[in-house]
User: What shape does this take?
Amino acid sequence: EKTHVTVHRDKMKEDTINLEKLPKHLAIIMDGNGRWAKQKGFLRTIGHENGATAVKRVIEQCARLGIPYLTLYAFSTENWNRPKFEVDMLMKLLVKALKKELKTLQDNNIKLNAIGNLNQLPSSVRKELTEVLVKTQNNTRLTVSLALSYGSRNELIEATKEICNKVKNNIISLDAIDETVINEHLYTHDLPDVDLLIRTSGEQRISNFLLWQIAYAELYFTDVLWPDFTNEHLHEALEVFQGRERRYGKTSEQLNK
Assistant: This one.
């Protein structure tokens, strides 16, 4: 089997990625849609529309490379505080994208997943989202998780409440609580820990995203605004990831024994 893939860049420069060292779970904070639009003199909504194109591009490339899990920070709990016009537009754009991309997801054996407080989403979004989730639930090539109305602190609070309630009702004992129990009560209970977290637009913070799940993730920050994020930029991030030594608290000497 091939262990490397050769990718042709725009300038015909070749880029080699080791397919045996890909992240199992890639997470992306897709930042910069608004700034992209502002720089070009467009409305912020145009930035979000072009951001949706970048989403499609990255999903297709992850499927082609063989990355099994991709989680995208699409809409945070804090994003509800944005101007109503922008929030409404984002919700309409989400419904439109779900309708448009269902066939692509099916044709490419891609499963759609959603994490977050989904009950906060408008009914039109929940209806369309549920349909796509159900129709793609048996797909196996790539699982794409959309973080919608998602906030990691809220996720941890809700998990804590559920666990406390189970302890109170003698469903689990206090001494039984460990990392596995906590994982089972998170939105991401069916997903592995994040291996690589990418954030675009030059900001270098986590913004309440997957705080528990990125405990040992490699972090990669790029100045590229999300609508401009291409396959080449993804490959650059993967190259950096593959060049890092992941020690998980151990020393280099221990790993190399």
Notes: Residues 94 and 251 are 45 Å apart (CA to CA).
